[in-house]
Amino acid sequence: MNKRQTRLFAIGSTAIAALAFLALTVDSHRQFPKLTNADQLTDEVVAGKDVWHKNNCVNCHTLFGEGAYYAPDLTKIAKLRGEQYLTAYMKNPSQFYDEQRHRRLMPKQNLSDDEIKHLIAFLDWVSKVDNQGWPPRPILVTGATIPGTDTTESAGAPPAARPVSGSENPMALGERLFRSVTPACNACHSVAPGVNMAGPSLAGVGERALKTVSSPGYKGKAKDAQGYVHESILEPSAHVVPGAMYSADGVSFMPNTYGQSLKPEQVDQLAAYLLSLK
Predict the structure, then answer these.
(1) Is residue 235 part of a domain?
(2) Which residues fall within 8 angstroms of residue 146, CB to CB, at 6 or more apart?
(3) Domain residues for 198?
(4) HEC string for the chain
(5) pLDDT of residue 13
(6) Could you say which of 120, 139, 158 is where a domain stops?
(7) Mean pLDDT taken over the chain
Protein backbone atom coordinates (compact mmCIF):
# COMPACT_ATOMS: atom_id res chain seq x y z
CA MET A 1 0.00 0.00 0.00
CA ASN A 2 1.55 3.31 -1.08
CA LYS A 3 1.25 6.64 0.73
CA ARG A 4 -1.80 7.77 -1.24
CA GLN A 5 -3.66 4.53 -0.53
CA THR A 6 -2.70 4.71 3.13
CA ARG A 7 -3.99 8.29 3.35
CA LEU A 8 -7.28 7.37 1.66
CA PHE A 9 -7.69 4.33 3.93
CA ALA A 10 -7.15 6.49 7.04
CA ILE A 11 -9.60 9.13 5.83
CA GLY A 12 -12.22 6.54 4.87
CA SER A 13 -11.88 4.65 8.17
CA THR A 14 -12.20 7.88 10.14
CA ALA A 15 -15.28 8.90 8.16
CA ILE A 16 -16.95 5.50 8.68
CA ALA A 17 -16.16 5.54 12.40
CA ALA A 18 -17.51 9.11 12.71
CA LEU A 19 -20.73 8.17 10.91
CA ALA A 20 -21.17 5.09 13.10
CA PHE A 21 -20.60 7.18 16.24
CA LEU A 22 -23.07 9.82 15.02
CA ALA A 23 -25.69 7.19 14.21
CA LEU A 24 -25.31 5.55 17.64
CA THR A 25 -25.54 8.94 19.35
CA VAL A 26 -28.73 9.83 17.49
CA ASP A 27 -30.20 6.40 18.29
CA SER A 28 -29.31 6.77 21.97
CA HIS A 29 -31.05 10.16 22.18
CA ARG A 30 -34.04 8.65 20.38
CA GLN A 31 -34.36 6.01 23.12
CA PHE A 32 -33.59 8.20 26.14
CA PRO A 33 -37.23 9.24 26.84
CA LYS A 34 -38.33 5.60 27.01
CA LEU A 35 -35.26 4.29 28.85
CA THR A 36 -35.42 7.03 31.49
CA ASN A 37 -39.21 7.13 31.86
CA ALA A 38 -39.17 10.82 30.95
CA ASP A 39 -42.96 10.94 31.21
CA GLN A 40 -42.60 10.27 34.97
CA LEU A 41 -40.39 13.32 35.60
CA THR A 42 -42.84 14.97 37.99
CA ASP A 43 -42.29 18.17 39.96
CA GLU A 44 -41.53 16.01 43.02
CA VAL A 45 -38.81 14.12 41.16
CA VAL A 46 -37.22 17.37 39.98
CA ALA A 47 -37.42 18.79 43.51
CA GLY A 48 -35.77 15.61 44.81
CA LYS A 49 -32.95 16.00 42.30
CA ASP A 50 -32.41 19.52 43.68
CA VAL A 51 -32.24 18.09 47.22
CA TRP A 52 -29.65 15.54 46.00
CA HIS A 53 -27.46 18.30 44.56
CA LYS A 54 -28.04 20.78 47.38
CA ASN A 55 -26.77 18.30 49.99
CA ASN A 56 -23.89 17.04 47.82
CA CYS A 57 -24.99 13.42 48.13
CA VAL A 58 -22.72 12.55 45.20
CA ASN A 59 -19.71 13.39 47.38
CA CYS A 60 -20.18 10.00 49.05
CA HIS A 61 -22.70 8.03 46.99
CA THR A 62 -22.92 7.00 43.36
CA LEU A 63 -25.77 6.84 40.85
CA PHE A 64 -25.32 4.60 37.81
CA GLY A 65 -21.77 4.02 39.05
CA GLU A 66 -20.86 7.72 38.96
CA GLY A 67 -19.90 9.43 42.18
CA ALA A 68 -17.46 9.27 45.07
CA TYR A 69 -17.48 5.47 45.75
CA TYR A 70 -17.20 6.09 49.48
CA ALA A 71 -20.76 5.03 50.30
CA PRO A 72 -23.14 2.58 48.54
CA ASP A 73 -24.41 3.02 45.00
CA LEU A 74 -28.01 4.21 45.26
CA THR A 75 -29.20 3.43 41.74
CA LYS A 76 -31.64 0.76 42.96
CA ILE A 77 -31.94 1.76 46.62
CA ALA A 78 -35.64 2.67 46.36
CA LYS A 79 -36.47 -0.83 45.13
CA LEU A 80 -34.21 -2.52 47.66
CA ARG A 81 -35.30 -0.61 50.76
CA GLY A 82 -38.65 1.07 50.19
CA GLU A 83 -40.14 4.38 51.30
CA GLN A 84 -40.66 3.53 55.01
CA TYR A 85 -37.05 2.51 55.54
CA LEU A 86 -35.59 5.43 53.57
CA THR A 87 -37.75 7.95 55.42
CA ALA A 88 -36.68 6.69 58.84
CA TYR A 89 -33.05 6.38 57.73
CA MET A 90 -32.80 9.93 56.41
CA LYS A 91 -34.41 11.32 59.54
CA ASN A 92 -31.81 9.70 61.78
CA PRO A 93 -29.08 7.56 60.13
CA SER A 94 -27.38 6.83 63.46
CA GLN A 95 -30.25 4.51 64.45
CA PHE A 96 -29.21 2.10 61.71
CA TYR A 97 -25.41 2.17 61.72
CA ASP A 98 -22.79 2.36 64.40
CA GLU A 99 -19.71 4.41 63.56
CA GLN A 100 -17.35 2.19 65.56
CA ARG A 101 -18.61 -1.06 64.03
CA HIS A 102 -19.21 0.06 60.44
CA ARG A 103 -16.26 2.52 60.27
CA ARG A 104 -18.45 5.14 58.63
CA LEU A 105 -21.62 6.99 59.42
CA MET A 106 -23.88 9.06 57.19
CA PRO A 107 -24.14 12.58 58.64
CA LYS A 108 -27.58 13.75 59.68
CA GLN A 109 -28.69 16.19 56.99
CA ASN A 110 -31.62 17.69 58.96
CA LEU A 111 -33.88 17.36 55.93
CA SER A 112 -37.49 18.48 56.20
CA ASP A 113 -40.30 15.99 55.66
CA ASP A 114 -40.96 17.48 52.22
CA GLU A 115 -37.29 17.25 51.25
CA ILE A 116 -37.18 13.60 52.29
CA LYS A 117 -40.37 12.89 50.34
CA HIS A 118 -38.97 14.59 47.23
CA LEU A 119 -35.59 12.86 47.52
CA ILE A 120 -37.29 9.45 47.75
CA ALA A 121 -39.38 10.33 44.68
CA PHE A 122 -36.15 11.14 42.82
CA LEU A 123 -34.45 7.91 43.91
CA ASP A 124 -37.58 5.96 42.97
CA TRP A 125 -37.45 7.48 39.47
CA VAL A 126 -33.74 6.64 39.23
CA SER A 127 -34.42 3.03 40.26
CA LYS A 128 -36.83 2.62 37.34
CA VAL A 129 -34.40 3.86 34.68
CA ASP A 130 -33.41 1.07 32.29
CA ASN A 131 -29.66 1.23 32.89
CA GLN A 132 -29.20 -2.06 31.02
CA GLY A 133 -27.24 -3.62 33.86
CA TRP A 134 -24.80 -0.75 34.41
CA PRO A 135 -22.87 -0.64 36.63
CA PRO A 136 -22.38 -4.42 36.32
CA ARG A 137 -21.30 -4.76 39.95
CA PRO A 138 -22.46 -1.74 41.96
CA ILE A 139 -21.31 -1.23 45.52
CA LEU A 140 -23.71 -3.26 47.65
CA VAL A 141 -26.13 -1.53 49.95
CA THR A 142 -24.81 -3.84 52.63
CA GLY A 143 -23.41 -7.31 52.96
CA ALA A 144 -20.36 -7.12 50.70
CA THR A 145 -18.16 -8.76 53.32
CA ILE A 146 -20.77 -10.07 55.73
CA PRO A 147 -21.01 -13.84 56.34
CA GLY A 148 -24.20 -15.47 55.18
CA THR A 149 -24.66 -13.22 52.15
CA ASP A 150 -24.12 -14.12 48.51
CA THR A 151 -22.45 -11.37 46.48
CA THR A 152 -22.37 -13.30 43.21
CA GLU A 153 -25.76 -11.76 42.51
CA SER A 154 -25.24 -8.27 43.82
CA ALA A 155 -27.95 -5.86 44.89
CA GLY A 156 -29.33 -4.00 41.95
CA ALA A 157 -27.83 -6.40 39.41
CA PRO A 158 -29.94 -8.94 37.56
CA PRO A 159 -29.63 -12.48 38.94
CA ALA A 160 -27.69 -15.01 36.94
CA ALA A 161 -29.97 -16.92 34.59
CA ARG A 162 -30.17 -20.57 35.56
CA PRO A 163 -32.61 -23.15 34.27
CA VAL A 164 -35.29 -24.38 36.65
CA SER A 165 -35.41 -28.13 36.93
CA GLY A 166 -38.68 -29.82 37.69
CA SER A 167 -36.78 -32.28 39.86
CA GLU A 168 -35.53 -29.59 42.26
CA ASN A 169 -37.07 -29.76 45.72
CA PRO A 170 -39.01 -26.81 47.18
CA MET A 171 -36.13 -25.76 49.47
CA ALA A 172 -33.70 -25.53 46.53
CA LEU A 173 -36.19 -23.48 44.55
CA GLY A 174 -36.80 -21.32 47.63
CA GLU A 175 -33.10 -20.69 48.06
CA ARG A 176 -32.93 -19.47 44.47
CA LEU A 177 -35.92 -17.19 45.03
CA PHE A 178 -34.20 -15.81 48.14
CA ARG A 179 -31.52 -14.37 45.85
CA SER A 180 -33.52 -13.57 42.72
CA VAL A 181 -36.87 -12.04 43.71
CA THR A 182 -37.24 -8.27 43.46
CA PRO A 183 -36.25 -6.87 45.87
CA ALA A 184 -33.85 -9.73 46.61
CA CYS A 185 -34.19 -11.06 50.17
CA ASN A 186 -30.41 -11.28 50.58
CA ALA A 187 -30.12 -7.54 49.97
CA CYS A 188 -31.48 -7.03 53.50
CA HIS A 189 -31.17 -10.39 55.28
CA SER A 190 -28.26 -12.63 56.16
CA VAL A 191 -28.62 -16.34 56.86
CA ALA A 192 -25.69 -16.34 59.30
CA PRO A 193 -26.53 -16.42 63.02
CA GLY A 194 -26.37 -13.00 64.67
CA VAL A 195 -25.55 -11.10 61.49
CA ASN A 196 -28.22 -8.42 61.24
CA MET A 197 -28.23 -6.16 58.20
CA ALA A 198 -31.05 -3.85 57.11
CA GLY A 199 -33.27 -6.71 58.26
CA PRO A 200 -32.68 -9.34 60.97
CA SER A 201 -30.73 -12.53 60.36
CA LEU A 202 -32.97 -15.35 59.18
CA ALA A 203 -30.90 -18.08 60.80
CA GLY A 204 -33.21 -20.08 63.05
CA VAL A 205 -36.27 -18.14 61.86
CA GLY A 206 -38.50 -21.21 62.22
CA GLU A 207 -37.75 -21.59 65.92
CA ARG A 208 -38.21 -17.87 66.52
CA ALA A 209 -41.46 -17.89 64.54
CA LEU A 210 -42.87 -20.65 66.75
CA LYS A 211 -42.02 -18.67 69.87
CA THR A 212 -43.54 -15.52 68.39
CA VAL A 213 -46.93 -17.02 67.52
CA SER A 214 -47.07 -18.58 71.00
CA SER A 215 -46.33 -15.30 72.78
CA PRO A 216 -49.17 -13.20 74.26
CA GLY A 217 -47.97 -10.09 72.39
CA TYR A 218 -48.36 -11.62 68.93
CA LYS A 219 -50.87 -9.60 66.84
CA GLY A 220 -50.97 -11.58 63.61
CA LYS A 221 -53.23 -14.43 62.48
CA ALA A 222 -50.72 -17.27 62.03
CA LYS A 223 -51.10 -20.45 64.11
CA ASP A 224 -47.72 -22.06 63.50
CA ALA A 225 -44.19 -21.30 62.26
CA GLN A 226 -45.02 -21.93 58.62
CA GLY A 227 -48.04 -19.63 58.79
CA TYR A 228 -45.95 -16.93 60.44
CA VAL A 229 -43.28 -17.07 57.72
CA HIS A 230 -46.00 -16.86 55.05
CA GLU A 231 -47.53 -13.91 56.87
CA SER A 232 -44.17 -12.17 57.19
CA ILE A 233 -43.62 -12.44 53.43
CA LEU A 234 -47.10 -11.37 52.33
CA GLU A 235 -48.13 -9.02 55.15
CA PRO A 236 -44.93 -7.84 56.88
CA SER A 237 -46.79 -5.30 59.02
CA ALA A 238 -49.29 -7.85 60.41
CA HIS A 239 -46.98 -8.24 63.42
CA VAL A 240 -44.18 -5.78 64.12
CA VAL A 241 -41.55 -6.75 66.68
CA PRO A 242 -41.56 -4.05 69.42
CA GLY A 243 -38.40 -1.99 69.75
CA ALA A 244 -36.68 -3.37 66.66
CA MET A 245 -35.23 -0.92 64.15
CA TYR A 246 -37.03 -2.63 61.31
CA SER A 247 -40.23 -0.60 61.40
CA ALA A 248 -41.63 2.88 62.04
CA ASP A 249 -45.06 3.85 63.37
CA GLY A 250 -46.20 0.22 63.27
CA VAL A 251 -45.28 -0.25 59.60
CA SER A 252 -42.56 -2.72 58.65
CA PHE A 253 -39.74 -1.56 56.40
CA MET A 254 -40.00 -4.82 54.49
CA PRO A 255 -41.70 -4.35 51.07
CA ASN A 256 -45.33 -5.48 51.00
CA THR A 257 -45.27 -6.27 47.27
CA TYR A 258 -44.32 -9.95 47.36
CA GLY A 259 -47.98 -10.94 47.34
CA GLN A 260 -48.24 -9.46 43.85
CA SER A 261 -44.83 -10.51 42.50
CA LEU A 262 -44.78 -14.10 43.78
CA LYS A 263 -47.09 -16.98 42.93
CA PRO A 264 -48.56 -18.97 45.86
CA GLU A 265 -46.29 -21.94 45.10
CA GLN A 266 -43.26 -19.62 45.11
CA VAL A 267 -44.23 -18.32 48.56
CA ASP A 268 -44.43 -21.97 49.69
CA GLN A 269 -40.96 -22.64 48.25
CA LEU A 270 -39.45 -19.54 49.85
CA ALA A 271 -41.02 -20.44 53.20
CA ALA A 272 -39.68 -24.01 52.94
CA TYR A 273 -36.15 -22.67 52.47
CA LEU A 274 -36.42 -20.17 55.32
CA LEU A 275 -37.79 -22.80 57.72
CA SER A 276 -34.82 -25.03 56.89
CA LEU A 277 -32.31 -22.44 58.15
CA LYS A 278 -30.71 -23.30 61.46
Answers:
(1) yes
(2) 190, 192, 195, 197
(3) 170-276
(4) CCHHHHHHHHHHHHHHHHHHHHHHHHHHHHHHHHHCCHHHCCHHHHHHHHHHHHCCHHHCCEECCEECCCCCECCCHHHHHCHHHHHHHHHCHHHCCCHHHHCCCCCCCCCCHHHHHHHHHHHHHHHCCCCCCCCCCCCCCCCCCCCCCCCCCCCCCCCCCCCCCCCCCHHHHHHHHHHHCCCCHHHCCCCCCCCCCCCCCCCCHHHHHHHHHHCCCCCCCCCCHHHHHHHHHHCCCCCCCCCCCCEECCEECCCCCHHHHCCHHHHHHHHHHHHHCC
(5) 96
(6) 139
(7) 86
Residue 178 inside a domain? The answer is yes
Given this model, what pLDDT does residue 197 score? 82
pTM for the whole structure: 0.71
